[in-house]
Amino acid sequence: MKVLIANRGEIAVRVIRACRELGYSTVAVYSEPDRAALHVLYADQAMPIGPAPSRESYLRIDRIIDAAKKAGADAIHPGYGFLAENASFARACIDEGLIFVGPSAESIDAMGSKTESRQRMQAAGVPVVPGLTEPVRSFDEIAAFARNVGLPIMIKASAGGGGKGLRFVEREDDLHPAFERVTSEAQSFFGDSAVYAEKFIASPRHIEVQVLGDQHGNLLHIGERECTLQRRHQKVVEECPSPIVDEALRQKLGDMAVRAAKAVNYYSTGTIECLMGPDRQFYFLEMNTRLQVEHPVTEMVWGIDLVKEQLRVARGEKLALGDIKPSGHAIECRIYAEDPSRNFAPSPGLIRYMNLPQGPGVRNDNGVYSGYIVPVFYDPMLSKLICHAPTRADAIARMRRALIEYRVEGIETTIPFFTALMSHPDFAAAKFDTGFLDRNLAELTKERSGNGSVDAAIAAAAILAFEESQQVRLPENGDSPWKHAGRAEALKDRL
Amino acid sequence: MKVLIANRGEIAVRVIRACRELGYSTVAVYSEPDRAALHVLYADQAMPIGPAPSRESYLRIDRIIDAAKKAGADAIHPGYGFLAENASFARACIDEGLIFVGPSAESIDAMGSKTESRQRMQAAGVPVVPGLTEPVRSFDEIAAFARNVGLPIMIKASAGGGGKGLRFVEREDDLHPAFERVTSEAQSFFGDSAVYAEKFIASPRHIEVQVLGDQHGNLLHIGERECTLQRRHQKVVEECPSPIVDEALRQKLGDMAVRAAKAVNYYSTGTIECLMGPDRQFYFLEMNTRLQVEHPVTEMVWGIDLVKEQLRVARGEKLALGDIKPSGHAIECRIYAEDPSRNFAPSPGLIRYMNLPQGPGVRNDNGVYSGYIVPVFYDPMLSKLICHAPTRADAIARMRRALIEYRVEGIETTIPFFTALMSHPDFAAAKFDTGFLDRNLAELTKERSGNGSVDAAIAAAAILAFEESQQVRLPENGDSPWKHAGRAEALKDRL
Amino acid sequence: MKFIARHAGEEIPIEVERLASGYRVRVGERWFIVDLAEAGRFLRSFRLEDGTQLALIHHRDGTMHEISLADSTVHVDITDPLSLKRKRIEDEMGAGGAIRALMPGRIVRVMVHKGDAVRKGAGLVVLEAMKMENEIQAPTEGIVDEVFVEAGQTVESGAELVHIAAL
Amino acid sequence: MKFIARHAGEEIPIEVERLASGYRVRVGERWFIVDLAEAGRFLRSFRLEDGTQLALIHHRDGTMHEISLADSTVHVDITDPLSLKRKRIEDEMGAGGAIRALMPGRIVRVMVHKGDAVRKGAGLVVLEAMKMENEIQAPTEGIVDEVFVEAGQTVESGAELVHIAAL
Questions:
Q1: How far apart are the first and last CA of chain C?
Q2: Class of C90-166 per CATH?
Q3: End-to-end C-alpha distance for chain B, whole angstroms
Q4: Residue C166 distance to chain A (closest CA, Å)
Q5: Is the four-CA dihedral A51, A54, A60, A63 of positive or negative sign?
Q6: Structural domain span for residue B51
Q7: What pLDDT digit, counting tens, does each position of B185-204 carry?
Q8: Claim to verify: residue A185 and residue A95 sit in the same structural domain
């Protein structure tokens, strides 16, 4: 079997790895600036699909289908984002005789509209958060809903997902600017300006349930994930299992998730996202009809490979997972090319040097390499760092260790932010809600300076400046000291 | 707690990782050429212990103890090799009030002599291979033993271990040269020329059992490892579990191992090495009274951390592993700086570039980095690559995938050899004995040339030579093509 | 040899002397005995006399040195005393209120007009880059005396967006 | 532009032409349309017209190119036809039977004397490096006409150990 991966970055690499392990050959697609991206380097074939902007490349259904046919692919895996939840894309694949590695177009449609999915969930007896029943385009309707259920509310792009195009509104004054911003983002990201609003649950946690089904009616849940830690409504740290879910609650959540997925005849991997209040009442939020960014934490704890299962199910095979059980605890940090000390401003550019974390219990799902130029056009995710250990405390300690090893030079990353988070007492105690990061951001991003390490850094810089002024090279491992050599070569840090 | 690691390379890094996750601070020791080695870079403190030759640095008990006292260390972890099985070192630590992270000096002594350990095992009802009862220094005694039990026999350095200083003798003519060689190696590696001989079991497998005990009399086995694949009596690939051991045999092996270890009042981690004939009869070979190189395959399958357990046991804690069970299959490949196409000649030197394998189920216990100069003085191991997956077939496929990602430029490595091995049908069928690699070496090391990939490589080289002659730089990701720039900078591959 | 280090707004006197093996360095009032070795192109193995070991990543851009430690990054400017005087004069004559794009991107919205009075933190321009809208805020209060961009335009990193004159 | 590639003992005529995007390359009888891009200092992204994609690692030493693929390494010498003639002459006058140390190490044992006749594969010297004793064997049969080392001596990589004259 030959699989085209209609995506880029770490998730395209992740899918290529699964295909390679199954003995399938792989076809990458790439926009112009991605000619030497990691997913292209790792593929067996690579097909160009247009210029940099996503809407002229990674979102072009026609060009992707055309690439698949030219390359002789049998199947298309959409990854997440881009066309992953686009029912027209799933239909176009089927129409062209290609296997779409995902659920049916009907399931995507049913869950794709926030309003339709709510109606179907309510009919299936799945609890939902109070909200509008239809997407709207006028501010008056949003204002009326806000008056009706009371602030705070959330305004979201109706066609959105993945944390893009949504705003939280607490004060009446912010209602109109938020509406305008969401409408604008909805139009530019999803091509549809319709928005939707719902009641905001105070101090909630974000818990989600992984489901997996085949095309023969078998469907099961594979535990929950804790995705409460978000910044600007974007998940940044995920865990499996949730530290607040016990076996009884896991069973309840799992039953709900299976009921929800079965209501839309779901197969392939999917995720039921829920809000959970401090009273442990949970409400269906939405279903992601695709692979989730944070799927690795489930994989490490449950000992399965969700991408391989997707591929098997897509080929029509029956689920055959046997008796799987969770073991230990896994945590994922999303490593982004963003500068935490400058309010997470994007930091694209050349990665001059990387030291990757290695060793026991460490998984790094990478999308970049030393010498790669992180482009400005796409999501700033560099890699997902996942650590697995017998207990949550062990997993946190392991993540802290891995983050110390993980060094990137040339661009700024969120690594220092995660280092601070892993040492925060409230994180250790699992005492947080979805607003935790935004409330504690100043503390988590303030400049740290270990005991005397600033003085040490200054001393090192001074020695290097001194050596440069003396035209002398540093002793290298094994060299006799103070070997004189071409200085400019040794100390100028350029590629 | 502060732990000094009396070792270098990947195992020193491995121990530092465990300490860091437990919150212990770490002290590295280094010989002159190791000033910038990875284990030094990752430690909190680093102490020089002498010049390059091991016997003047890593084997100097006095300097290591001195470094521990200067640095204020509470404990010393010996790793494997060097002083790990040196009872005098264990005693020196205790005498100086330092915790020795390993078994008692008495256990090391009892198992350290091949002849004494055989006697104690026989007394404990543990089956052993027929062999000499005392170490000898004269050729006549070896010749007499060979006449007595018949060839083939093995001649080994009595104080040896780890596959160094031993020879297999099949023909009468080879007996004397082999004796001379082993005697010489025994003297130079272990400082004692005494040798020892035993009957050779035809077509055997090498199976070993992991044990773990505390200082309160609790001792248990943690399954077996398959270490049959050896080259020149050096393990190169290890697996957990063994593909030929079923639950009943595992129980028998485990009982034997616990009996053997208890016979010497063992605590800490240790390994009972066995030979197993095609009839599944097994014979005690030796006990390694330390951490084993291949410990990660056991860790990944059993979900434990043997180094952390060693450290806990050394502090006097009781074992508290709970109910552990094996899950899936793990394979380890030892990645060496050796050139398989030149009969595995050592290949020290500068690592100009490395692309590390990443992603699901891949663990790389590394001891080197891009820009590191592999020194000529020590073991050529660069890293241990371990893959874990639900089944043996999945683990092999994953290893093959990881080996494709693993690229090293500047020195030769054993990666191509492992790639060939992972595709060998007899390896897939687990049909091998300890002579398999030596018999199949020509096939496993022959130059491979994929479909037209030689032509592709020549075409690439020609383009790069052409561009150089034209003083034009290759288009970089995102650059507009044919940007003219300093050519010498772009294409000259030097650091 | 003597230098001046500028870090976090402070000027710190530095002295560096080479020893038979390693260096003696003064940072402000403190003297250190330091051993520093290369570990590849960017990594440096740094060790103090008591054995304290740090793995540093070093990058230099002119006289600016960026030194990354495990959990923090230190930016420090190392100059000889003469060059420093020249720099100080430049700083005083510097461009002050120029607001620049810190990354390439597309201008989504311009929120101010020439002549507007703005407070510190007021939104000036919304720039879209890497799938996010980023609001660029006034670093200080003042009067907008120039707007260089308009909505829909793409800008390169470093491009001047708005200029603010002090009140 | 025309070159001669020398690979595995063969001489292969090469032609390279630049296209608007990419290259047209002849290797022996076959023509390829190739797209080649840099991915950092050593990695190259190589693509044929049908989409076939390879990640190559490239290292050049003079006219010798080492190209590493996922499962093999190709060594090829790329020269223009003129330089090649000069090289051929050098090869013919070459040093022939010099046996050199391929790595630095310590001589453990010298197994031959000046004047010994040796068969191909006969042990000459045992060199200890990286904790292993390595027996260096005669690459061809001949007469040992010089021994340059003795037991206990340490040698650098490339040092001449023994010289063998053809029979």
A1: 44
A2: mainly beta
A3: 40
A4: 23
A5: positive
A6: 2-101
A7: 888 888 888 898 988 888 89
A8: no
